[in-house]
Amino acid sequence: MTQTPFLSIVAPCHNEEEGLREFCRRAVAAARSVAGDAFELILVDDGSSDGTWEIISDLAADVPEVLGIRLLRNHGHQLASTAGLAASRGERVLLIDADLQDPPELLLMMMPIMERGADVVYGQRTRREGETWFKLASASLFYRALSRLASVTIPRDTGDFRLMRRRVVDILLAMPERDRFIRGMVSWIGGRQVALPYERDARFAGTTKYPLRKMINFALDAITSFSTTPLRIATWLGVVSAGVAIALLVYTFVRWLEGETVTGWSSIMVAVSVFSAIQLICIGIIGEYLGRLVQESKKRPMFMIETVRRGSEQAELPAVFSEMSASDRRAALDAVFASGEPPRSQKTSRIG
Predict the structure, then answer these.
(1) Residue 126, Cα to own-chain centre: how many angstroms?
(2) Which string of DSSP letters, residue by residue, matches 281-339?
C-alpha cells in the first residue's frame, strides 16, 4: 500500500487540449510549494472529442504525481468532478477547473486558512474577466435567486473551486443524488467554511463549456436539489387562479341576474389562455421534481470509468467503483497503485 498523499488536486477536463499542459505546469508548481512531493494531480477526461486524453496520458508518463482518469462518455462537469473526488486519496482536496480561470496559485493562500481550522476554503469571485455581459447578468441573477430559494445558505458568486478536508469529501461522496450541485452539497454539509475573494481570470484557451442550454439545466438542478419553493409557488398560483375564477363566476352570475348578456370573445380567450398557462407552468414544475425522482429511483451508476492512467501503465477500476463505500474505493485504488511509484522522467517540455 502506497503512502497516502497529503494533497489531491482534482480537475475535470472536457476538450481542454489547448491549455492543459499549462494548467498542469502551474498546478504542479503550486502543489509542490505546499506539499513537496506528497500530492497527486487527478485529471478527469470527461468524454473529450479532441486530444485531451492523449495529453493526459503524456503528462501521466512525464509527471509521477499525475493520475489520468478517462470516463466512458461525457457525464457532465458535476459528475466528472465527482469521479475525480472519488479517486482522490489526499487528506486535503482541491477541486478546480482546468481552464485556468481559477488560478492554481491561490492554493498557497487557501492552505494557511485551512491550517487555522477551516473545513472548506472556497473561492468567491469579486470580478470575472473575459465574460460577456449576458453571462455576467445571468450568473448574477441565478446566484441571487438561488440564495432566496435554497433551504441552505449557498454563498453568492462562488463556483466549485474550493479546498476541502478529507472528512468533507467523504461525506460529499456518501450523498447519493445523481443530479448533483456540488457547491450546494458542500454548503449543506456545514462545518467551518471560509471565503477567499479573488478576481477570476479569462480562459487561457478554448471556449466555454457552459452554453445557455447547459446553464439553464444547471440552474434547474441547483434549484430543485435545494428548494421546494417552486412547488409552493405552483400551489399559490393555483390558489390565486381559483380565486380569480370564482370572482369571474360571481360577476357573470350577477350580470345574468341583471338581465345583461356577457359579451366579449377576446376577454374569454384571454382568461382561458391565462388559466391554461398557469396550469401548464404548475404541471411543468411538478414534472421537474418528478423526473428527478424517477432518475434517482433507477439507481444507475453516477459515472463509468473506461481506464486509469498512471506512469506508462493503464489500469481499470471496478465497474461499480462509483457505488463503492469509501473503504472499498480505497482498496481498489491501492490495487492500482500497488506496482509502486513510476520512475520520474527527466523530460519537462511536455508540461512547459
Answers:
(1) 20
(2) HHHHHHHHHHHHHHHHHH---S--EEEEEETTEEE---TTGGGS-HHHHHHHHHHHHTT
pLDDT in tens, 69-100: 999 999 989 999 999 999 999 999 999 999 98
Phi and psi torsions of 300, nearest 5°: -75, 155
7-223+301-351 sits in which CATH class? Answer: alpha beta
Question: All 3 cell numbers of residue 208?
Answer: 466555454
**Cell 477567499 -> residue:** 196
Contacts of 244 (CB under 8 A, 6+ apart): none
Cell of 8: 489531491
Q: How far apart are CA 215 and CA 219, in angstroms?
A: 6
Q: What distance in Å separates the CA atoms of residue 195 and residue 209, rounded to the nearest whole number?
A: 25
Q: Which residue has the cell 440552474?
A: 219
The answer to whether 13 and 46 are in contact (CB under 8 A) is yes
Q: pLDDT per residue over 243-270, tens digit each? A: 777 776 677 677 667 766 556 655 675 6
d(CA 14, CA 46): 5
Laid out side by side, the sheet with 66-71 consists of 193-200, 120-128, 158-165, 92-95, 7-13, 39-45, 66-71, 305-310, 313-315
In the chain, the N- to C-terminal Cα span, in Å, equals: 32
Q: Which residues contact 26 (CB under 8 A, 6 or more apart)?
A: 100, 103, 104, 105
Contact 93, 166 (CB under 8 A): yes
